[in-house]
Amino acid sequence: MLHIKELTLNIPDTTKPRVVIIGGGFGGINVARKLSGKEFQVVMFDRQNYHGFWPLLYQVATAGLEPDAIAEPLRKMFDEDYEDFHFRQVKVTGINPASKTVSTLVGDLPYDFVIIATGTKSNYFGNEQIKKYSFPLKQVPDALNLRSQLLQSFEQANMIKDPEVRQSLLNIVIVGGGPTGVELAGSLAEMRKHVLPNDYPGMDFSRMNIYLVEGLDRVLPPMSPESSATTKRYLEEVGINIKLNTLVESYDGEVVTFKGGEQIKTQTLIWAAGVSGAQVAGLPPEASERGRYLVNHFNQVIGFPDVFAIGDIAYMKTEKWPKGHPGVAQPAIQQGQHLAKNLRHIIRREPLEPFEYFDKGSLAIIGRNKAVADLPKNMHLKGFIAWMAWLFVHIYYLIGFRNKLIVLANWVYKFFTYENGTRLIIRPFLRKDDIAGQEFVRKQADLD
Amino acid sequence: MLHIKELTLNIPDTTKPRVVIIGGGFGGINVARKLSGKEFQVVMFDRQNYHGFWPLLYQVATAGLEPDAIAEPLRKMFDEDYEDFHFRQVKVTGINPASKTVSTLVGDLPYDFVIIATGTKSNYFGNEQIKKYSFPLKQVPDALNLRSQLLQSFEQANMIKDPEVRQSLLNIVIVGGGPTGVELAGSLAEMRKHVLPNDYPGMDFSRMNIYLVEGLDRVLPPMSPESSATTKRYLEEVGINIKLNTLVESYDGEVVTFKGGEQIKTQTLIWAAGVSGAQVAGLPPEASERGRYLVNHFNQVIGFPDVFAIGDIAYMKTEKWPKGHPGVAQPAIQQGQHLAKNLRHIIRREPLEPFEYFDKGSLAIIGRNKAVADLPKNMHLKGFIAWMAWLFVHIYYLIGFRNKLIVLANWVYKFFTYENGTRLIIRPFLRKDDIAGQEFVRKQADLD
């Protein structure tokens, strides 16, 4: 048996300054791309071997796309034009600023500069029961698992005796009214209308209820009140049950109880309610606030000039963004690109340039011709034009990301038709042994 | 928690004859398609919710294709034009000819005709150790698991200290020189030459050894000696180590020992050495021979006029095929179509027509411009023309199967370029806890 202790990082020695990037998300890949050249040795660590285009992850969960449409192997992204770039699929266990080393599962590596670009993880606010029974939507395996859960629920709803249990299979509760929750709800509504009635001719999908639960008083709280109001109307038009000002008290895998006492029986609770920074051990508590690293305008973690944080894990307080930048792709991309420039300044002993966020606006999609956009200068779009803007932006970024016209054509084709051909039930992990229906799944697979 | 006992099959009552089809493979879908109409109620059971184009499964294992390119949801295949067709994703536990019922995990169903189209499963010849440690290649999750294992091995080989352990990660042993083993070996050789050196610039892939082990004295034993000889030459040209007349004695997850005593250290043993019929409980032993159901020329199981078997699970002895038809897609497809005709004859009290297999020949691919074909009348093709024939046949069947030009274009594009974009490590099942590197995988995923 191969033990971890037999592994080593195997990074070549170098006389160039070594930049260690922790995380291959939007921030990590952009700083790595811009550092390409002869000046640095770049080492990237990630637990996964791929970069994900996470804004479309919900499409994997609703069987609209396969993982390869939204994820790209990191080794492939950095394979040819990137000299002295080294990827290792390994988990980072800590940073040691005193010795200037990064610790991983398989050994330590000295750094000259380390960039924390680890993003966020699901936040269950300490509720272990919810963590155990709910379905998160942060990673590719999560999306595949949720997809299997949804399809399996329909299969079982089609075979259940007790109407009350059937209803609990047909009740989908999404907790969290941010972009993930809203786009997932919209996509499930389209599935309910256009796909499922064909697949399950004997079933009455008017009984399928999609609940969207939000603790604040509006959906899409990071967007403008105008877009929130439009989104709420769109969601209601496609038949989503919205519960605002509602917090989850508990969920035991069968019944979700809200603060206030209301209950819904559901076998599928999707947790999109919050994230917290995926922090790395080794920096003192005063370097963080609310789970994010406090950084100056050069993305340096306060007190540690050789340690940088970018993207969702960074907390840069500016006059315009006193609570930090929004937790979306753009700040991560821009900070990554900007930091590469500043690292060059550092080794050339030039003055650093402060980061300034260029807000391109934000978008959310609910369904065909139903989208909202907040643009700079307080402009708001909705309806067909916002939908076209959403498509354009996503196609534009996917072109850069995938660089493959035919894959893109395939994506557009799948997106515009309702020919979702990917409704395959393939459980990626059976890690939740006691969730609904697992007895059935396990017996089907002869795993018992 | 939802228990199996709360489920029921929920098939509507009918006055039409009810045909129960067990299995949604090539045989099952073809009989179901041809039975479409007003004369029968058709019920199909399968443990998976999809039909797979298994001749291309090895492409999923070598990251050439994603599962959706080779698998199609059964509900989608039969969604619109098929009246009174009922699919249930449920495991069949037995047939009771006395009561004319089929038993499933969730209840029994009376039948008028039952068609066993369950195909084959991996045969480990009773060796539990090999079953535990080797990687099969029969199902979509198998292929995804093998893909992850291969990619993970390369990641680890890149980080290993001990050169001997590194070599055991770079030794891939395929047991079984039939079509699956040969095509997988060829595909791995292409990966080694065109893909891996770009992905792992620091690694020396001339050290990656691909062994193909066959118990008989030639590869592709079902094909002609001419094609076997050509295939052997092709495999050697692309650097496959072929071991003929070699049987596996044991494999403990680290070392494979052959009968005769030779040993190879490998972390990845792929088991493509044999299959046995996936039989269903309930028929007496005399209805079977070598794990397959003995059927007459109408595919009726001997002694049970209402029980039919088609495809790999059927053993029809004919003058031309005394050992039964070959275990490939064509006999299953043709028997399925033919049986539908005979079922109509039965209910119309017309005489039955005996099945006659139209042998279209067989094909295997080793690499670009390297393929072999045995055609009727003892004709053999090889090289570019056989390769074109292989492409044409697979494209032809995929068109019928997927009915989507753009998906097909995508497939052809991926096939012809080396732009395999699907090298994502997503373990579908962590069911082998003690195989090589699982400690690492589990710790990476925080599963411990």
TrEMBL record, chains A, B:
<feature type="domain" description="FAD/NAD(P)-binding">
    <location>
        <begin position="18"/>
        <end position="336"/>
    </location>
</feature>
<dbReference type="Pfam" id="PF07992">
    <property type="entry name" value="Pyr_redox_2"/>
</dbReference>
<dbReference type="InterPro" id="IPR023753">
    <property type="entry name" value="FAD/NAD-binding_dom"/>
</dbReference>
<feature type="domain" description="External alternative NADH-ubiquinone oxidoreductase-like C-terminal">
    <location>
        <begin position="360"/>
        <end position="416"/>
    </location>
</feature>
<keyword id="KW-0472">Membrane</keyword>
<dbReference type="InterPro" id="IPR045024">
    <property type="entry name" value="NDH-2"/>
</dbReference>
<keyword id="KW-0520">NAD</keyword>
<keyword id="KW-0285">Flavoprotein</keyword>
<dbReference type="InterPro" id="IPR036188">
    <property type="entry name" value="FAD/NAD-bd_sf"/>
</dbReference>
<keyword id="KW-1133">Transmembrane helix</keyword>
<protein>
    <recommendedName>
        <fullName>NADH:ubiquinone reductase (non-electrogenic)</fullName>
        <ecNumber>1.6.5.9</ecNumber>
    </recommendedName>
</protein>
<keyword id="KW-0560">Oxidoreductase</keyword>
<feature type="transmembrane region" description="Helical">
    <location>
        <begin position="379"/>
        <end position="399"/>
    </location>
</feature>
<comment type="similarity">
    <text>Belongs to the NADH dehydrogenase family.</text>
</comment>
<dbReference type="InterPro" id="IPR054585">
    <property type="entry name" value="NDH2-like_C"/>
</dbReference>
<keyword id="KW-0812">Transmembrane</keyword>
<keyword id="KW-0809">Transit peptide</keyword>
<dbReference type="Pfam" id="PF22366">
    <property type="entry name" value="NDH2_C"/>
</dbReference>
<keyword id="KW-0274">FAD</keyword>
